[in-house]
Amino acid sequence: MSKQFGWWFFTCGEQILVIAQGERLPYGDIDDLPLPALEFSRVEQFASYKGEPCLRLELEHPQDLGMGEWVDLRSSMSLLNSQLFNLVGKAQQFALFLKTHQFCGCCGHAMTRVDWELAMLCSACGFRAYPRVSPCIIVLISHGSQLLLANHRRHQKQAQPMYTAIAGFVEAGETLEQTVHRETHEETGLKLKNLRYWKSQPWAFPHSLMAAYFAEYADGELKIDRRELADAQWFEANDLPHLPPLGTVARDMIEHWLAQTSL
After folding, report:
1. For the whole model, what pTM was predicted?
2. Residues 142 and 249 in one domain
3. Are residues 40 and 112 in the same domain?
């Protein structure tokens, strides 16, 4: 079998090429795809999907490849299944890592790619760098038949403002559970009880790993940190606002809570 056979991830910065049929990503031998001349010496296998290689090729410009269209990572969420979406995120995080680690952060010397793992090595001082992963938490807070949902400032200018769960990054020296309590209190003034971990999701914006929790209201009055949130309210289960898109862990949490609440 050709070394250039598999699932093709043509990327350009935050964009990915998707096609109209099948799994929405090109698949097959490179010689059978209707492509113009490209520099295929830069093709890299970075994962596998359904037992076949995932092949990444980063382009300098989102050029016309004779098939499909270029979409950004967020838009691809609605076009790809969750596994492929995560693989697209992985491909883009690899590209970002290679772009931002060309020089050593310790001595400034040029770094070279390690050929047995995804890492960059400084031949001058020996420092080795790996792709950055930024842990963060997201927590869905309930109080009886109500959910606490927030409109984050980055979403406030949307035509239909989106409301979602409370989220934030883990600080140095914190456990995930400490982060949940701190972020909730900082952004809403509330205290929590019955905190329970649910699941995680890689989130390539640009290199996060989301740890999802459910929790219940314990005490406090809602006091919004306007630096982080445009709004936060308690919503009844049968009267929810515009929610995050399907495929996000936030939406999965809300749908799971609704299913459990309706029992």
Report:
1. 0.86
2. yes
3. no
